[in-house]
Amino acid sequence: MLTTFKATAKKLPDGLQVETESRGFKVLMDEPKDLGGTDASLNPVEDVLCALGACQAICAAAFARSQGIKLDDFFVELEGDLDPDGFQGKASVRNGFQEIRFKMHMKTDASQEEAEKFADFIESRCPVGDCLQNGVKLVRSGVVVE
What we know:
The chain is α+β, with helices and mostly antiparallel strands and 146 residues long. It has helices at 44-63, 112-125, 127-134, and strands at 8-11, 18-22, 25-29, 71-81, 99-108. A hairpin with a 2-residue loop joins strand 2 (18-22) and strand 3 (25-29).
C-alpha cells in the first residue's frame, strides 16, 4: 500500500535559513557563511548525507535480529563530492552530488562475510539509498502566488 509523506520548507528572514517541518517535527537548514548563509545549521546536501546514514542505521537496527545478526553498535561514515559552481551557475557541472561514499561500522560477533552480507541487505532495504541510487520523479504540482 502506497503511503504519502508530507513536509514543508519555509524560508526564514535570516540569511539563507529554512525551517522544514514534517509530522510536527522541525529541522533548521542553512548554508555556510562562504555560501551566503549564517552557518546556523547543516545545509540541505549535508542533510541528505545524514538522512542516508540514518536510514541505513534504522534498517540495521530494525532487521539485525531477523537476519541473524547480533548488533551491539552501528554507525555510518559518509562523504559526498559536490561542486558548488554547478548550482551557482559558474560552471556547467552537475548541481548535486557526483558521488557519495559510505562506510558501515558494526560491532558484532558476526564474521566479516556475514557482516558484508548484512550490509548488502541494509542497502537493499534502505528507502533513502533507493531514492539516491535510482532517482525519483520530481513533479511540481503548482505555483501559488500570495
